[in-house]
TrEMBL record:
Gene3D superfamilies: Ribonuclease Inhibitor, Tetratricopeptide repeat domain. It comes from Claviceps purpurea (strain 20.1) (Ergot fungus). PROSITE patterns: FBOX. Signal peptide: none annotated. SUPFAM superfamilies: F-box domain, RNI-like, TPR-like. Coiled coil: none annotated. This is F-box domain-containing protein. Pfam families: F-box-like. Residues 173-222 form the F-box domain.
Amino acid sequence: MADLIQAGRHSYLAKKYSRASALFTRAICICPCARGVKRDRCTCKNYEQVAAQGGSILREAMYTCHCDVGRTFSKCDDLYHIQALNSRAATYGALGKLDLAVRDAEWMLELAPHLPDGYLRLGNIARLQKNDEYAWKIYTAGIEANKETDVGSSPKLQQLYGARKPLNQRFFRQDPLCLPAEIVTQIFSYLELSRRFVCLRVCREWRRTLTSPIHCQLWRTMTICSSYYRRAPDIDDLKRIIPWAGDRGVREIRISLGTPIEFTFTQAMLTLLLKASPSLENLEVSYLRLLYLPSNEKIWKRLRYFSIKSCAESYHIAADRPGGFPHKFLENAASSLVHLHLSGIPQYWYNMMSSLPILPNLKILKIGDYSKHMVYPDDQWDGLPHPDAIPFPIFPLSLAFPRLEQLWIGPNLPYLDPAPGWMWREKAEDIWPHLKVLIFDPTIFIGQTSGAQGTYSTLWHLTRLTSLQHITLQLGSGDWPCMFSDNDDLLSDNDDLLSDNGDLLSDNDDLLSDNDDLLSDNDDLLFDNGDLLSDYDIARCSEFPNLHSFSSQTMCISPNGARALLSNGIKSKQLTSFDIVFPCEDYMEHASLRHLKGYDWLRGAPSIDTLSCYGIDLQSTLVKDGRLFLPRFLATFPNLRTLDIVTCDYPLHLGEEFVSLVIAIMRLTHLKTIYMASTSFAEYYHPQLRQVARDHGVRLRSGPRILQWPMPLLEK
């Protein structure tokens, strides 16, 4: 047999295909498995049909036979027999007789279903016939039939893997439940609760696997949202789900109720869900309306995060009543609660200090009010003072939440009520000694109204807390006076205000004669709030010793005020981020340039890695001069990697000026990321800008940088 096969191969290489075929046929006929008689192939098998139906090709090769061949002849894994059939199939393929080649390849499968040779030959022929899916299934069947064989020990098996590889991307389908349990849980966690129920109906195996203890994490997060298209889970559903979450129930619950669902999600369901989850860690509820959280249970000792969003109707509802604020629930979870998010403040928080829940371990607080139309403090709302118009007292929060580390005030909370100055003086060491992050973002335009006086005074005192590391003030308008200027800076600011016509006061006599007016102007600048100026020493007692970042998109801080704010952070090399806001109305041609030059003392600070430039006027000397003032200023910071650049509104024809400015910045600095916010987003797609960004390895991002919350803090 070996000699015949060798001779046939020589004829094949010489392209004498007919002679090669005859030699291979003689070799096949003298195999001992024929026992001296002619051996025919079985015609009962239909591999292509089995593959199309998703059946087992190996089983078809092993057991399907209704003729005499299976009873007369046994399987044959003789190496020469298989080689002869393989070579003859290749010869038929060279002659274009693919039907005969398929017959020999299938005969190889019939004789030796546990060898890779037949699968490889049949799959290759299927590819020649442009039947790639069938070829992939044949290759896969061969790999599964040889799964106990070491791949490195069989060259044919290696070829089988190699032949299947380019087809995997198109045809490889695997039951996701065969993946590692962690990946399965992650995949199904993206589905809403109602969709997970649908998955349980795929088959019994899916239901058994997805509800087994190994996938308990999948049911430890419960999200129930209002929807017009999907029914809400009923109480029987909850009774089935909760045991799937494993010992001690659900860990994270999100409930957002609206019109479509509010009458189907009942108080009994809410109570069942909470009481069956004593290890609850995160709870988010929105618009409970007629429902309430349990107030008599003290079982939630692991609740760390609680978020509640209320509707405007809840403002007048008493605490712990249906639709009211869950006062007792919070107090019962006080020992573990670390993060609190309130959207909608109950009425009694405005006027009853002693009614606040005491949360001694709370570290993160975001507090905002209902979304309502802007009103001023003297306006009325349904005969009662509008909540937007009532100043919210901040000082009582420091007593109720003494260990607070991060505080976000807003949205819809523009008016703040400062405590009397003596409180800040006498209790200075007790007012949030651990507060590291302060964010004020009311998202409502306040302006210099009477209600803004208390807000200004409150922020003045809060920003002087010595523990602060990160300060963000989004005031909604740029006409607020700078709260970080010293007396000299205030005098210089008044000089500018008193010389709007461009005629500066030129002699000391004029300055002294107008001193009374100057002081009264300072009173207006500081929004005199009774005892604020008398307590100015409180404001000066802090030198911002721990400041890491300061952010404000609207507050134009004078260079002298910025020096008072940042100097200690620069000296200690703690300051990493700062926002520069340019004058929003450049009445004088060089105002923006003069403002930037005032920051020369900041040049080259090695600790700064993030800068933001707001209110850049593309028609000012700062940009149009051609001497690249801003790019050269930014280039002095050796570790600057992130830049926010936001322009004033400008005519569309100045878009090229903006592009040129950003290109110059990229060429002179070592930036990694630039956030761009301009009048038109067309500049973001400018081809030259994007090419320069690629050349310098800079990522361009459209819009301003998103504020991270809660802010990551460095552990000392």
